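If you are new to this repository, start here. Below is one unmodified record pulled from the training split, so you can see the exact layout before writing a loader.
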Amino acid sequence: MTAKGQDGYTLLELLVVVAILAAISFIASGTFKGVAEHADERLAYSEMQQIASALRQFKADTGYFPREGVFRLTADGGEVTTVPSHDDGSDDEWFYSPANLYQLLATTSPLPATHPLATWNAETGRGWRGPYLSGFADGEVNIGDDLNPTDPDLADNDSGDPTAGTMVDVVGIADPFDHKPIGSIFQWSNIPSGDAWGRPYLFLQTAASPNRWQLVSMGPDGAYNTGDDIVLPVQ
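And here is the target side for that same chain:
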C-alpha cells in the first residue's frame, strides 16, 4: 500500500523529464534538418543530370549547345533572328543570360525554317528534335546579367553576381523549391536570403575553363560562386 502523498511525481522529477524531452526534440530537429538539406542537394544533382542529358542531346542533334554557334543571335554570327517576347533589357543580355534555357524548352526550332538544322533530317542524322526538356516546372525569373553583359562566349565574365542588375523574364528552371505560382507563371527567388533554394540553374562557361560548359546550382544559400554551389560539367 502506497503512503499518502507518495503516489505522484515530484517537481524535480518532472523538470528532469521535460529537460530530457527538450534535448531529444532539439537533437531530432537538427537531424531532420540535415536530412532535408541532403535530400535537396540530391534532388538538385538529379535534376542537373537530366538537364545535362538534354543539353548533350541538343548538341548531338545539332552540333551546338543552346546559345552557341548557329544558335547565337545573328549579330554574333549565329542564325537566330528573333527571340521570345520579354519585358525589359536588351535582346543580347536577355538571350545570353546563363539562366536562360528557353532553347531547350522551345517546342519549335529557334532557327529560320529554311535552315538545314531547323528540322530533323533522318538521312543525315542531324537537326532539331525539340523540345529537349520536359517534365519540369519552367518559369520566369528576374536575374542580373553581370555574368555575361554582352559576350556570348561568357569566357571573361564569370566574376559577376547573377542577382545584380535588372534582367527580367528569363526563362529557366529552378533548383528544388516549393512550386508557388504567381498568376500563370512560377516566379523564383532572385535575391539570396537565408534558405534560398529556388534559384535558377545556370548554364555557362568561365574564364578558368573557357572551352568547357558547366551547369551550376547556386545551392542552399542562393548565391553564385560560393562554397555550397553544385557544379556539373556538361562538356
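Two things worth knowing about this chain: The longest helix spans residues 11-62. The chain is about 25% helix and 10% strand.
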